[in-house]
């Protein structure tokens, strides 16, 4: 019990990045791009089994644990997802905030080729009535695109080329949005 | 994409999702979102059609806005848009198509994002959606003008 309390207090006071919450995965707590998703999930689960409010029957420090549990959750969701992780790293390391439209706009300058491709695929998706084969094709194509970007990010992070990383992360956001649109797609009902 | 969304919101208008979105969005946004005006495309190869394509890189939204201009009068006679993005971005572009139809290019170029944001009561975090719509109409006008210059010079 004391150990748990100490853990939660230490981390609430001094955490400087999400990486520090997962000492088994990141022993020195330094922010890195490459992560082992399985290993991270394992540590996340073991942490939540200690700190999740449901896992502790009665506890005077319920609120502390609740906060820590939700912090661990937020950290895990951010680190496991390549887009979120890259956005987080850019903010953390270079103070580049891609959620700010002005910042992001300055980096991309409305790249016309990218926008044309994005629009084109969205329109293709929109034109599909109920052909699941076509949806699968678009989905596969998009997965390849996303994987490709993630691989490029590996190299760019190794070389610490943050300007290119920022641009590629913005592009990734467009394709992740597309994959959401693909998930939301539903066959068109006839006579409409 | 938003066609299907719009459809589902109309059909399931009593669903909890819409009830929630009603609390988050101003009625004018909901109205344009569920019943967007001037959705579609114009033939961009036509010499009197100007196309504006803009993106919101932080959100990952794209907006295409097209105007068809009367070469003699300089009046925007037809306008279409397609926006793949959030409700505010769709509503902003839908509203801007209503604003520019029948206007001269000169007047259309004067439209400010604040006008759009006011009509739709956009909250500060969504102001960039109205800026996107302003950028889109400006880009469409520029595209038309550069095409026209090219034809006049021939």
From TrEMBL, chain A:
Homology family: Belongs to the HscB family.
Gene Ontology biological process terms, A to Z: [2Fe-2S] cluster assembly; [4Fe-4S] cluster assembly; aerobic respiration; intracellular iron ion homeostasis; protein complex oligomerization
Keyword annotations: Chaperone
NCBIfam families (UniProt xref): hscB
Amino-acid biosynthesis among keywords: no
Organism of this sequence: Vanderwaltozyma polyspora (strain ATCC 22028 / DSM 70294 / BCRC 21397 / CBS 2163 / NBRC 10782 / NRRL Y-8283 / UCD 57-17)
Protein name: J domain-containing protein
Keyword Chaperone: yes
GO cellular component: mitochondrial matrix
Domain of life: Eukaryota
InterPro entries in the cross-refs: DnaJ_domain, HscB, HscB_C_sf, HscB_oligo_C, J_dom_sf
One GO MF term attached to the UniProt entry: protein-folding chaperone binding
Annotated ranges, domain J: 17-92
Taxonomic lineage of the native organism: Eukaryota, Fungi, Dikarya, Ascomycota, Saccharomycotina
Automatic annotation (TrEMBL), chain B:
Domain NIF system FeS cluster assembly NifU N-terminal: 25-149
GO molecular function: 2 iron, 2 sulfur cluster binding; iron ion binding
UniProt keyword Zinc, yes or no: no
Highest rank taxon of the organism: Eukaryota
Family annotation (SUPFAM superfamilies): SufE/NifU
Intracellular or extracellular location(s): Mitochondrion matrix
Any single biological process term in GO: intracellular iron ion homeostasis
Principal location: mitochondrion
Reported cofactor(s): [2Fe-2S] cluster
One Gene Ontology cellular component: mitochondrial matrix
UniProt KW keywords: 2Fe-2S, Iron, Iron-sulfur, Metal-binding, Mitochondrion, Transit peptide
Pathway(s) of this molecule: Cofactor biosynthesis; iron-sulfur cluster biosynthesis
Entry keyword annotation includes Cell cycle: no
Function field: Scaffold protein for the de novo synthesis of iron-sulfur (Fe-S) clusters within mitochondria, which is required for maturation of both mitochondrial and cytoplasmic [2Fe-2S] and [4Fe-4S] proteins.
PANTHER family reported for this sequence: IRON-SULFUR CLUSTER ASSEMBLY ENZYME NIFU HOMOLOG
Record-stated family: Belongs to the NifU family.
Protein name, UniProt field: Iron-sulfur cluster assembly protein
């Amino acid at each position: 019990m004391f150990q748990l309390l100490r853990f939660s207090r230490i981390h609430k006071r001094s955490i400087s990045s999400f990486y520090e919450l997962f000492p088994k995965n990141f022993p020195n707590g330094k922010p890195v791009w490459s992560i082992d998703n399985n290993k991270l999930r394992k540590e996340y689960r073991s942490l939540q089994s200690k700190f999740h409010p449901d896992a502790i029957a009665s506890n005077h420090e319920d609120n502390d644990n609740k906060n820590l549990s939700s912090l661990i959750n937020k950290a895990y969701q951010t680190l496991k997802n390549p887009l979120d992780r890259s956005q987080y790293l850019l903010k953390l390391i270079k103070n580049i905030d891609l959620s700010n439209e002005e910042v992001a706009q300055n980096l991309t300058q409305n790249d016309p080729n990218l926008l044309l491709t994005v629009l084109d695929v969205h329109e293709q998706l929109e034109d599909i009535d109920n052909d699941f084969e076509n949806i699968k094709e678009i989905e596969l194509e998009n997965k390849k695109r996303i994987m490709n970007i993630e691989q490029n990010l590996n190299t760019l992070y190794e070389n610490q080329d943050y300007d290119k990383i920022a641009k590629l992360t913005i592009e990734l956001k467009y394709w992740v949005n597309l994959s959401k649109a693909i998930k939301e797609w539903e066959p068109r009902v006839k006579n409409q | 994409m938003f066609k299907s969304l719009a459809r589902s919101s109309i059909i399931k208008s009593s669903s909890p999702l819409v009830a929630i979105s009603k609390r988050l969005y101003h009625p004018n946004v909901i109205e344009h979102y569920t019943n967007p005006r001037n959705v579609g495309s114009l033939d961009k190869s036509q010499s009197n059609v100007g196309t504006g394509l803009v993106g919101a890189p932080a959100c990952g939204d794209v907006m295409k806005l097209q105007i068809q201009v009367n070469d003699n009068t300089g009046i925007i006679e037809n306008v279409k848009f397609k926006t793949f993005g959030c409700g505010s971005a769709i509503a902003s572009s839908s509203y801007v198509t209503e604003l520019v139809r029948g206007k001269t290019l000169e007047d259309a170029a004067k439209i400010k994002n604040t006008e759009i944001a006011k009509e739709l009561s956009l909250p500060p975090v969504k102001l960039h959606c109205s800026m996107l719509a302003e950028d889109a109409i400006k880009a469409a006008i520029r595209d038309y003008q550069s095409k026209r210059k090219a034809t006049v010079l021939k």
